[in-house]
Amino acid sequence: MIRAVRREDAAAVAEVYRPYVEQTAISFESGAPAAAEMARRIEATVTHYPWLVAEDGGTVVGYAYAGPHRARPAYRWSVDVSVYLAPQAHRRGIGTRLYQALFDHLRAQGYCNAFAGVALPNPASVGLHESLGFAPVGVYRNVGYKSGRWHDVGWWQLELLPPDPDPPEPRPTP
Predict the structure, then answer these.
(1) Domain N-acetyltransferase: where (predicted)?
(2) Where are the beta strands (DSSP E) in 31-148?
């Protein structure tokens, strides 16, 4: 089941995210955020950008969310997106379903572009994004240092809505 995140999901979301921070360079954070910090992040953005969770048997096994692409006003029709899955949720189509639901929400809100940054190499993430229609737009070389080495970040773009010469303002999260 895919649904909107709730405040009480913060601990489960933090637990899904923790291995990405502690065991990989997929996330450039140096310490895994605790539940309270994850709740703060959700609450700080959820009124304008959706956060969704996937449940399996009542347990949160993944989440996807959007956030602002950049701070300046001209970027307000574009978002950055991410999806994270618990190990038992990999290779089951859950990431695809989370992202598709997220993109439906974003389109309904009036967002035009979604961008995804992928720490490289990460063929699973690249494959997921490209299977959903994302196109590569560039690579930031040696942009992040973690685990004793420099990492590149590739950027992918998905057009959510065609460009409108006079776009309406994006709507708040329903």
Answers:
(1) 1-159
(2) 51-56, 59-68, 78-85, 113-120, 135-146
